[in-house]
Amino acid sequence: MNHSAATAFDLTRIACVWMRGGTSKAAFFRVQDLPTDPKSRDRLLLAAMGTPDARQIDGIGGGTPLTTKIAIISTSGDDQADIDYLFGQVVIGEDRIDYAPTCGNILAGVGPYSIDQGFVPAEDGKTIVRIRMVNTGGLCEAVVQTPGGRVSYTGETRISGVPTPGAPIELGFRDIAGSSCGALYPTGRRLDVIEGVAVTCIDNGMPVVLIRAEDVGATGYETPTDLDANAEVKARVEAIRLAAGPLMGLGNVAGKVVPKMTLVSPPRDSGHLNTRSFIPRKCHDAIGVLGAASVATAFDDEGTVCASLATGPAGSGVRDISVEHPTGEFTIRLSGGGEGEAPSVALLRTARPLFEGHVLVPPATAA
Ligand code: NQM
């Protein structure tokens, strides 16, 4: 740990980069700058974010699940990866970090961060960073723009939910089916009835329960604010989630942030389906990356709750599934798969560092 001299002499300084990855934000740390003991590490990270205060007034956290995330980066010991990415979801209003899920949005920042920090040497043009998602064991190849051997963050790529364009970061995933549940369809079926409602439980990178919006009394086109305020819909969704958890092999999910819950409905624009996702107690302003991968996979398959929504692109070649969400759409590229096999997933994101320096915490929390 770096306890070097600071302007604020009685606070501990930890090197930190605050990054946007896709439509989320996280504090990025190098593993060597943090305590090795997980309890001490988490105490320090919670203090840095300012939690359990829900407003996070005494820390750098953003006060919402999408802006209170942590990424811990190290060199990988796995032959198939260059980098190990450990993700932490700070649970808003609580004194804990949930390491059960990974996060595909924050994953978009891992390639560029790893090059910037010297973990991976940059090529001239593009650099491929092979990332192991420690939380779930899945692998991802990130293609980062590195003209002249340096990461470029600027460009013309736009993603829904981010007002400014940036350099594209291509993410291609491997071995993500059953990431947390052990199987693509963890209940063994494409359709289950839980709490009297037809659902599809799927895990192609993220455990997700899909529900037709109308089946829980929603239209599926509400704003996230309206859904967050709708106690009846939220109670029905949470009851289904609590019952789905054990069926998906996730155990008691009362205190967990998985499975995510996605309401599906017919598309409104030119997409294939429309979504509203609870992550899991608050409605997402867009949709998670791996959440969208799981939703697209269910849409692409037969016999799921999506079957009645629309007809997807046919065939087993490359299919681009456009998932509509509250702030636009997210295209997920699927290839291969079928007959019980999960398709491969590829997609495009942008990311950039917003601030780099040191986060300061009271020394008692850094002991
Ligand atoms: O599903 C939010 C996000 C996420 C996770 C959440 C994500 C993913 O948008 O891979 O990106 O589902 O809690 O950051």
Blueprint (SSEs and pairs):
Blueprint: E1 12-21, E2 24-30, H1 38-49, E3 69-75, E4 83-90, E5 97-98, H2 104-116, E6 125-133, E7 139-146, E8 169-174, E9 192-194, E10 197-203, E11 207-212, H3 224-228, H4 231-247, E12 260-265, E13 273-278, H5 289-300, E14 319-325, E15 328-335, E16 344-349, E17 351-361
Parallel strand pairs: 2-3, 4-6, 11-12, 13-14
Antiparallel strand pairs: 1-2, 1-17, 3-4, 4-5, 6-7, 7-8, 8-16, 9-10, 10-11, 12-13, 14-15, 15-16
The protein binds (1E)-4-oxobut-1-ene-1,2,4-tricarboxylic acid.
(1E)-4-oxobut-1-ene-1,2,4-tricarboxylic acid is lined by residues 23-24, 65-66, 103-105, 206, 260, 279, 288-291.
Quick structural gist:
By secondary structure, the chain is of the alpha+beta class. The chain has 2 domains: 12-176 and 351-366, Diaminopimelate Epimerase, Chain A, domain 1 (Roll); 192-341, Roll (Diaminopimelate Epimerase, Chain A, domain 1).
